[in-house]
Amino acid sequence: xxxxxxxxxxxxxxxxxxxxxxxxxxxxxxxxxxxxxxxxxxxxxxxxxxxxxxxxxxxxxxxxxxxxxxxxxxxxxxxxxxxxxxxxxxxxxxxxxxxxxxxxxxxxxxxxxxxxxxxxxxxxxxxxxxxxxxxxxxxxxxxxxxxxxxxxxxxxxxxxxxxxxxxxxxxxxxxxxxxxxxxxxxxxxxxxxxxxxxxxxxxxxxxxxxxxxxxxxxxxxxxxxxx
Length: 227
Prior knowledge:
CATH class of the largest domain: Alpha Beta
Strand order of the largest sheet: 4-5-6-7-8
Structural class: alpha/beta
Low-confidence stretches: 1-22
Helix content: 25-40%
Mean pLDDT: 90
Shape: globular
Radius of gyration: 23 Å
Strand content: 15-25%
Order of helices and strands: HEHHEEHHEHEEHEHE
């Protein structure tokens, strides 16, 4: 005999509501990619697509889902530039990021984006080594007062640690000379990715350091120079 029709108010009258209904599900892939965003502080949607190995529309969909969940903020930060994403406190918490959720300074975004471009090439596409971001270096080298100059990242390669620097604008000659001397002394190798207007000065100063372990490469980076 079939069951009688469910009366109004009977739980059998409608399917049970899922516990996570109305919420955004969190996947392990989210943790990995949100962690990457936290390490770089902010990344563009195009860079997110490259890091995730997906298309730009897929990365935009991912950005919307994260934003709806409250895990990221997202908006353009450069004049006529792409949308960037960065972690909120909730995003840092669910990703278990060791770094504070900060709103990026628009004046630093061009440099941050350039560093991410170098990371995607060296670590993700050419697979030359493991990337240690500047935020991680800062935590490991923190001390009261002025600490050592920190490169933009360190690449751990089978041949040793390589300090990575990205230079888009020219610093004062005295300051730049001091940074080159310190970095080349502290690391077995230093790779500078320099804009065309900066590269000649960098190359000249690099030749004057006693260790001669600084390599000046173009930015945007050329994969053929590194294969």
